[in-house]
Structure formats: structure tokens, C-alpha cells
Amino acid sequence: MDDLEPHMSKDTFEYHRGKHHRAYVDNLNKQIDGTERDDMSLDDVVLVTYNKGGPLPAFNNAAQAWNHEFFLESMKPGGGGKASGELLHLIERDFGSFDRFVQEFKSAAATQFGSGWAWLVSTPYN
């Protein structure tokens, strides 16, 4: 994935995919092997193992695997930059400006304990 440079080096991408993501998937598979969760999708494992924030190893590994999959699948050459269209409209409505959103998004990730995952999400009710 040299195409992601200068934002992410090929080595960094491969490290996330080959080491972090692989370890979470392998550990989760060991934890759910032979259980009713063994045939579930990753999304379903995340949902059924969530314990209102309680420390469940299967949830931790499932959530980290999901975060890595979402992150890695979202990467694309030439991606990023300022949002446009309806997304930009909603960002400006809710954050005041795109620059303010970027500040708050970076702050959310930087102050998140652990891996620092931060996602922008929307519901149809907004």
C-alpha cells in the first residue's frame, strides 16, 4: 500500500494489518472456538459480548478486530481531505465548521484511552 504515503507508510499499514489486527482475530478465535459465538459474524460477536463496558476479553478482541477492519477497509489512495455534499453540511451544522470538526475529532482520538479510535457516526434521527 505505497499509495497511502505520505499519510501512512507501507510498513505502518502492514504492521497494523499483519500484527495488531491478526493478533486480535487470532485471540478472538481462540476465545470463541467451540462456543455458540463461533459461527457468528464479527458484528454479532461485538454486540453479544458487550457488557456495558465491563472487561470481557472476547468483547475487547472482537471490538479491536472490528475497529482495525473498519479502519483498514476505509483507507484508499488519495482519500481524505475535506468532506463534501450532505456530509459537509451535517458537519458544519453540528460542529460549526469543518476545521472545528477536525480539531474535535483529533482531540477525541488523542484523549481516548487505549488505541485512540474515534469514528464520526450519524443516525437517521439527526
UniProtKB/TrEMBL annotation:
> Which GO molecular function annotation, any one, does this entry have?
metal ion binding
Q: PANTHER family from the xrefs?
A: SUPEROXIDE DISMUTASE, SUPEROXIDE DISMUTASE [FE] 2, CHLOROPLASTIC
Instruction: From the UniProt annotation, give the residues forming the signal peptide.
Output: none
Presence of keyword Phosphoprotein? no
**EC number(s) in its UniProt entry?**
1.15.1.1
Q: Taking every annotated instance into account, which residue ranges of this chain make up the domain Manganese/iron superoxide dismutase N-terminal?
A: 2-75
Similarity comment: family membership: Belongs to the iron/manganese superoxide dismutase family.
Keyword annotations of the record: Iron, Metal-binding, Oxidoreductase
Per the record, GO CC terms? chloroplast nucleoid
Its name, as the record gives it, is Superoxide dismutase
Query: Is the keyword Electron transport assigned to this protein?
Result: no
Q: Which reaction does it catalyse?
A: 2 superoxide + 2 H(+) = H2O2 + O2
Q: Which principal EC class is assigned to this enzyme?
A: oxidoreductase
Q: Which organism is it from?
A: Populus trichocarpa (Western balsam poplar)
Q: What InterPro entries does the annotation carry?
A: Mn/Fe_SOD, Mn/Fe_SOD_C, Mn/Fe_SOD_N, Mn/Fe_SOD_N_sf, SOD_C_sf
